[in-house]
Design brief:
The complex is a heterodimer of chains A (about 250) and B (about 270).
Chain A: H1 6-16, E1 23-26, H2 30-40, E2 47-50, E3 54-55, H3 69-73, E4 77-78, H4 81-89, E5 96-99, E6 103-105, E7 110-111, E8 114-115, E9 124-125, H5 132-138, E10 141-145, E11 153-154, H6 171-175, E12 182-186, E13 190-194, E14 201-206, H7 212-217, E15 224-231, H8 237-250
Parallel strand pairs in A: 1-2, 1-5, 5-10, 6-11, 10-12, 14-15
Antiparallel strand pairs in A: 2-3, 3-4, 6-7, 8-9, 12-13, 13-14
Helix pairs in contact in A: 1-2, 2-8
Chain B: E1 3-4, H1 7-14, E2 20-23, H2 32-40, E3 46-50, H3 55-62, E4 66-71, H4 83-91, E5 98-101, H5 104-116, E6 120-123, H6 131-134, E7 139-142, E8 149-154, E9 160-169, E10 174-176, H7 183-189, E11 192-201, E12 211-213, E13 220-223, H8 241-252, H9 254-265
Helix pairs in contact in B: 1-2, 2-3, 3-4, 5-7, 8-9
The chains are: A alpha/beta (about 250), B alpha/beta (about 270).
Chain lengths: ~250, ~270
């Protein structure tokens, strides 16, 4: 068995969530790594959509930014930014939105705007919304991938940049949001899914070698654990090879 | 008809203190040289507009050119934060920076409304987020046909929009290809526009899919080879990713930034 890092486990677990033939609106960073890994592995017919207007990008290396020339050169089509948001995302044509976060709360709401309670005088000013609010609103479902710590997994986000499940089940329907919202959160420790009754994120799978206590400690709220807790299969040799090749080609 | 001007003259004529200025470019074709010329000419009180303010906006903000930023994602793509932007927001250095914050979809639609000559645009965005509470230019609106609650955002009509493109001909028609972001919309929404280009040719060779901005829709064209560096110009040069990484260290601290600025503006240390 090849050794692997918890970050590699996270990327592999996130990639596995993407099915072949799906369309995926990809954020930069961890989501892009996972989506490209999936496309080069089990999901060769995954359509990658980047907010720079690249539809069906097939990069040979990981892009450093969502507007890298490689994405345009390998895309089925390159369209304007108004088009990608208005024609492709807004009507609900895209299966999965794949997002990162600076903070995530127990109902899957995402903050990428400011840390601290005062918007005008933030403790930390983050980059902001980008395409995420509309991705979270309009994709059929949303996967979130980020490293887990009490600082990032908070009871309530300081700022709702992108809406998850609000304050619980039914909020999305009440607001008329078309997509199902976050259905999966992938971290370096395990997987979480919204509880079907309450929409609260619940630990459903642990990565190999991770203990429940570790995840509970890395979570800023009293984490619920599924009664039917599973274990993620370790990365296969093939998955690790593809991931490492991708990383090497992108260095 | 677009006038062919030098960059220096174009910026002197088209960009005034206190103007609302959009320098657009979505990773690709960022008009960096034009941004540097604005810094050299010492403009102040600008309202800077851009979906993705990146390092050239960090530089304009750090140089004290801007009093307000209208944007949807402010970062150094693939690297991290914009530290001059952060310093201005968190510590008002070198001058306070007011912000008006949107999402990409909101900004894109504001330009579309501006280019369309309409007062506002409508989108199914922002619902449930905290953005409408902080941004006055996001308002709820009810569809008169279906009753659906949507978001309205006002048109963006910059005093001047600056973009970079691959080519123009001598008459000032502009050809642009690759990732074209919101450049067309931003130019058509603006009262005045400047396009810096890699090359000026006698005749534009047709290129499938390449947008042509006709001469009569553009105020001025300036030939500035390499004018998008360290971003890239498809067909001309690649993105200098190392320069984006290197900016992180320069932008991180006021002293190293000031040294960079002195070098740009020709001030002897």
């Amino acid at each position: 068995m090849t050794e692997y890092t918890s970050d590699e486990m996270m990327s592999v677990a996130a990639a596995r969530a993407l099915g072949d033939g799906m369309s995926c609106f990809v954020g930069i960073g961890l989501p892009s790594t996972a989506a490209n890994l999936a496309r080069r592995g089990h999901a060769p017919n995954l359509t990658l959509i980047y907010e720079s207007g690249c539809l069906g990008a097939k990069p040979t290396r990981l892009p450093l930014s969502i507007g890298d020339g490689e994405l345009a050169d390998t895309a089925d089509a390159v369209v304007s930014v108004p088009e990608v948001f208005n024609y492709w995302l807004q009507p609900g044509r895209i299966d999965v939105g794949f997002l990162g976060a600076a903070q995530l709360d127990k109902f899957g709401n995402i903050n990428t705007t400011v840390i601290g309670p005062d918007y005008a005088n933030p403790k930390v000013r983050l980059p902001g919304a980008g395409g995420a609010p509309e991705i979270a609103a309009s994709c059929r479902e949303v996967f979130v991938v980020l490293r887990q710590s009490p600082r990032t997994f908070v009871e309530k986000v300081d700022f709702v940049t992108s809406f998850g499940h609000g304050t619980g089940k039914g909020d999305r329907e009440r607001l008329g949001l078309p997509g199902a919202g976050p259905t999966l959160v992938v971290t370096d420790l395990g997987l979480m899914r919204p509880d079907p009754e309450t929409a609260e994120l619940t630990l459903t799978e642990l990565h190999p070698g991770v203990e429940v206590d570790q995840v509970v400690e890395a979570t800023g709220w009293k984490l619920k654990v599924s009664g039917d807790l599973g274990t993620t299969p370790a990365p296969t040799e093939a998955e690790l090879r593809i991931l490492r090749d991708l990383k090497r080609a992108s260095a | 008809m677009a006038e062919l001007l030098s960059l220096k003259e174009a910026v002197a004529r088209l960009v005034h203190d206190g103007d609302t200025v959009a320098l657009e470019g979505f990773t690709h074709l960022i008009p960096v040289a034009a941004g540097h010329e604005i810094i050299r000419q010492g403009r102040t009180g600008l309202t800077l507009v851009r979906m993705t303010p990146d390092i050239v906006y960090d530089q304009l903000i750090g140089a004290g050119c801007a009093s307000k930023l209208i944007f949807s994602w402010g970062g150094n793509p693939g690297v991290g934060s914009l530290h001059r932007f952060r310093d201005a927001v968190q510590h008002s250095w070198p001058v306070p920076l007011e912000i008006e914050e949107h999402s990409h979809a909101g900004m894109a639609n504001r330009y579309v409304a501006g280019a369309s000559g309409l007062p506002f645009a409508v989108l199914r965005g922002y619902t449930g987020t905290d953005l409408p509470m902080q941004t006055d230019t996001i308002k709820p609106i009810t569809c008169p046909f279906t009753g659906e609650r949507l978001a309205a955002v006002p048109a963006l009509n910059p005093d001047v929009t600056i973009v970079h493109a691959q080519r123009a001909d001598r008459a000032g028609n502009v050809q642009i290809w690759g990732i074209t972001g919101v450049q067309k919309e931003a130019v058509l929404a603006a009262k005045r526009s400047l396009v810096t280009v890699e090359d000026v040719v006698d005749e534009l060779e047709p290129r499938p899919g390449a947008i042509v901005l006709p001469s009569w829709a553009v105020t001025a064209v300036a030939k500035v080879p390499g004018g998008a560096r360290p971003s890239y110009a498809a067909g001309y040069y690649e993105r200098d990713n190392d320069a984006y990484q290197a900016w992180d260290a320069i932008g991180r601290d006021r002293e190293s930034f000031t040294r960079w600025l002195d070098e740009l503006t020709g001030v002897k240390a």
